[in-house]
Design brief:
OB fold (Dihydrolipoamide Acetyltransferase, E2P); nine-stranded mixed beta sheet; about 15% helix; about 40% strand
């Protein structure tokens, strides 16, 4: 399987590339007053406003560093909504092919982070998989609907 490798608060993670429509450079972001910290704002993509969620702020409580390797991952919300959303991801410039069997259950379940998946040994350390559907369904969609602060 092909994965996009990213960093969240100094830790390495992998997102299945098949769920990502595009990887875009970090562009100018319009902030949204009084929005939760993980909701970075919105940006314009092909003439339309797209909400933007900071993965690092969502998962680790600290915003992603704005640098040349910071990217916007354009994805779609699951189920009926299917609207596009951008995810800010640090050091999102590399992909890797990793067999699904290499990922193992770490024996941990964090209720506030249902998107944290199995881990694999990769290049001398652990690489944790981020499951895109639970991330979007349980954490991102509630931010956009205004129902809660997400995960």
């Amino acid at each position: 399987m092909l994965f996009l490798l990213v960093r969240i608060a100094r830790q390495r993670y992998a997102l299945e590339a098949g769920g990502i429509e595009e990887v875009l450079p970090l562009v100018e972001v319009r902030s949204v007053p009084r929005a939760p910290a993980a909701l970075a704002g919105m940006f314009e993509c092909r003439g339309a406003p797209v909400p933007l969620v900071d993965l690092s702020a969502l998962a680790a409580g600290v915003p992603a560093q704005r640098c040349l390797s910071t990217r916007i991952l354009l994805v779609r919300l699951p189920e009926a909504q299917r609207r596009p959303v951008g995810l800010i991801a640090g050091q999102a410039t590399r992909t890797a092919r990793i067999d699904a069997e290499q990922f193992r259950d770490p024996g941990l379940r964090i209720g506030e982070a249902p998107y944290l998946g199995p881990v694999a040994s990769f290049e001398g350390g652990l690489l944790q998989r981020i499951e895109l559907e639970p991330l979007l369904r349980d954490c991102v969609a509630p931010l956009l609907d205004g129902a809660t602060d997400g995960c």
